[in-house]
Design a protein that fits this description.
This protein is of the alpha/beta class. The chain contains seven helices and four strands, in the order βαβααβαβααα.
Amino acid sequence: MATLHLMVGLPCSGKSTLAQQLEQELPALRLTTDEWHIRLFGQDAEAPEHDARHSLMEALLWSIARRALELGTNVILDFGFWAREEREDYRARAKQLGASSEIHFLDVPEDELLRRLVRRNAQPSPMDFYIPEAMMKPWFAIFQKPTSDELERRA
């Protein structure tokens, strides 16, 4: 049975690094929204079109993930999944396809996330968004940490 792996956490929590490790260990098809988004649209995190573009990328990557799961391939969605409702939606999609699902939550304290953000912004990468600190701080209040029942693997 294929498994859908959801990478959950805020920027700079280590989601993509863990996703890359899991990609090799499981093995699995890794789909990281930011990598695709940046290749197509560049560093547009502060652009008015960013959120709409990001939603389009997630929809496109889900269509690839869906087919891979149907074929029996493990999939890692490295989207962040900040809201419980979104996590539950994707888990339900996996279940409809006969796949199990698992959440990988990286719980990093806010002060450490900000330290990592400063370091990341100082050393730009073509695969990571430049995110101003002022943009990230409000996200702490929006992010919904997974509950213990969410962290259980679901068949």
